[in-house]
Amino acid sequence: MQTPAPGTLRILHLSDTHLTGDGALHQGTVDTTAALHALLEHLDTVPGTGLVVISGDVSEDGSPESYETVRRTVGDWAERHGAAFVTVPGNHDQRAGFRQVLVDGHVLGEGGQPLVHTMEHHDPSVPVRGQSLVAGRRIVTVDTSVPGAGYGELSEPALEHLRAALAEPSEHGSVVVLHHPPLPAPTALHDALKLRNPEDLADVLRGTDVRVVLGGHYHHHFAGSIAGVPVLVAPGVANDNDVAGAYDQETALVGTGALVVDLAADGSLWSTPVRLPRPDADEQALHLDAEAAARIAAAFGPA
Ligand SMILES: [Fe+2]
């Protein structure tokens, strides 16, 4: 992949890792820890990543062990790449276990440096909230989870956190990270589990310096916008929803991917979906070595 242009913040956007503390398979079929390892290994050659984000459902069971796994695997990848690491709870996460290991979700700061946190006790009814600065961008995490429920909601304390964080513009704008995306759901099940008050989010975002909202939850990549702000939904690490099927049915396929999101100095945004190839299923259709690719580029590109 190309190196990002100077001044660009490259974000590796992962979502829905659904890690288990005891190694249990997700939905009885997928070893999510192995899937995460394989995906990170595949992404190891992506250059210039400044921030790694996991937009919720980090854990399947809410256990501290599952959060230790993500702290170690994604934390090590981010440190090695000199990238910050930020995450936020989803509906499968449990705030107590999340906070015990990941505190407010802002795990590593700019350059992959560990962030120093004072451990505060919060009741699990209090949403996890955080913000940090990466390459002049303010990264704000908002907890849309509702304890014991699958749907999402922005509570008044979560909205107030967002309002306060966005009150003054940042040098190069802001990025909002949340789990339940403020976009329509592709299936009946996901419709029942969607964010219930996207209009409240729109009211807070309107007129702010937010350049993009990063979400997950649907285990399928799609893009939209809210209040004129782009919304990107990352594919799931755990599996890939087949949204083309009947509206009232739910099908997920074995498959893992991520987004590589580039946020340029002037606020322009590009997102590149990356899929982990499956050697058992994916046959190579084309491979050009560097010499062959250069020959074709010289023949058919501009003189
Ligand atoms: Fe979810």
List the helices and strands and how they pair.
Elements: E1 9-14, H1 32-42, E2 49-54, H2 64-80, E3 84-87, H3 95-102, E4 106-109, E5 113-114, E6 129-134, E7 137-142, H4 156-165, E8 174-177, H5 188-192, H6 198-205, E9 210-215, E10 222-226, E11 229-233, E12 240-241, E13 252-253, E14 257-263, E15 269-275, H7 290-300
Parallel strand pairs: 1-2, 2-3, 7-8, 8-9, 9-11
Antiparallel strand pairs: 1-14, 3-4, 4-5, 6-7, 10-11, 12-13, 14-15
The chain binds fe (ii) ion (FE2).
The site of fe (ii) ion has 6 residues, from loops.
Describe the structure in your own words.
- By secondary structure, the protein is α/β, with parallel strands linked by helices.
- The chain has a single domain (9-300), classed as Purple Acid Phosphatase, chain A, domain 2 (4-Layer Sandwich).
- The chain is built from seven helices and 15 strands.
- It has helices at 32-42, 64-80, 95-102, 156-165, 188-192, 198-205, 290-300; strands at 9-14, 49-54, 84-87, 106-109, 113-114, 129-134, 137-142, 174-177, 210-215, 222-226, 229-233, 240-241, 252-253, 257-263, 269-275.
- The chain has a seven-stranded mixed β-sheet with strand order 5-4-3-2-1-14-15, covered by helices on one side. Strands 6-7-8-9-11-10 form a six-stranded mixed β-sheet. The protein has a two-stranded antiparallel ribbon with strand order 12-13.
- A hairpin with a 2-residue loop joins strand 6 (129-134) and strand 7 (137-142).
- Helix 2 runs parallel beside helix 3.
- The two termini are 23 Å apart.
- The model has no long low-confidence stretch (mean pLDDT 96).
- Bound molecules: fe (ii) ion (FE2).
- Fe (ii) ion (FE2) binds next to loops.
- Keywords: Hydrolase, Iron, Metal-binding.
- It comes from Curtobacterium herbarum.
- Pfam families: Metallophos.
